[in-house]
Amino acid sequence: MAEAKSSNTPRARVVLVHGLWMNAAALLVLQMRLRHCGFDAVRFGYPTVRAGLEESAARLSELLKSQQADEIHLAAHSMGGLVTLRSLELYPDMRVRRIVLMGAPVAGSLSGRRLASFNAGKLLLGANLDLWGERHSVPVPDEVDIGVIAGTLPVGLGWIVGPLPKPHDGAVSVTETKLEGAADTIHLRVSHSAMLFSAEVGRQTCYFFKHARFAHPATD
């Protein structure tokens, strides 16, 4: 006889995934915003320089497996978006329903490639030195709605390694965030690093988890 699920098991849980050179602490504000709008949110941390994409994807899969929830949504920032999509490609989880990618360079990163051309940059990128090449297609999990948030405030460290195609968020250009098969995309006036602390990004992420689309001004 199957064990009955606890009445305390959340129906939906959100897993937050940070980007390069960050840790789980950077997700605290976004976690609080999502909890305020009704979602139980947990933070996933991983070593962004020491661990390569495959290892980080496996770690994320283990965290997802441990979640006692009927449905799982993910909000992933920057490199975290690549980790998330790779994890679901290698370790599918049928409970995953919606994903919000925030400034994720799913089509490659010019800043990353430029940084990788310097010796100091190689050290900064570590095990993910080859992660930033151009991609022409990224697998989108079946039955999963993906929303893409792209920033257009050009403030960040990307200028150190050269200019980026406009519009961009200071590190990733809008064209680098384009994902074929995404359910919806929205451009917000926010910089790359500020996405995790932006009230509007938090609001749009919550809205997407509830409606599988963003709250576009023309329709909402």
Write a brief caption for the model.
The chain has helices spanning 28-36, 53-66, 79-90, 110-115, 119-125, 199-211, and strands at residues 12-17, 40-44, 71-77, 96-102, 145-151, 184-188. It has 220 residues and is α/β, with parallel strands linked by helices.
Question: Which helices and strands appear, and what pairs or packs with what?
Answer:
Blueprint: E1 12-17, H1 28-36, E2 40-44, H2 53-66, E3 71-77, H3 79-90, E4 96-102, H4 110-115, H5 119-125, E5 145-151, E6 184-188, H6 199-211
Parallel strand pairs: 1-2, 1-3, 3-4, 4-5, 5-6
Helix pairs in contact: 2-3
Structural commentary:
The structure is a single chain. Strand 1 (12-17), helix 1 (28-36) and strand 2 (40-44) form a beta-alpha-beta unit. The chain starts with 11 loop residues before the first strand and ends in a 9-residue tail after the last helix. The protein has helices at residues 28-36, 53-66, 79-90, 110-115, 119-125, 199-211, and strands at residues 12-17, 40-44, 71-77, 96-102, 145-151, 184-188. By secondary structure, it is α/β, with parallel strands linked by helices. 43% of the residues are buried. It is globular, with a radius of gyration of 17 Å. The protein has one domain: Alpha/Beta hydrolase fold, catalytic domain (Rossmann fold). The chain contains six helices and six strands, in the order βαβαβαβααββα. Strands 2-1-3-4-5-6 form a six-stranded parallel sheet, with helices on both faces. Helix 2 (53-66) packs across helix 3.
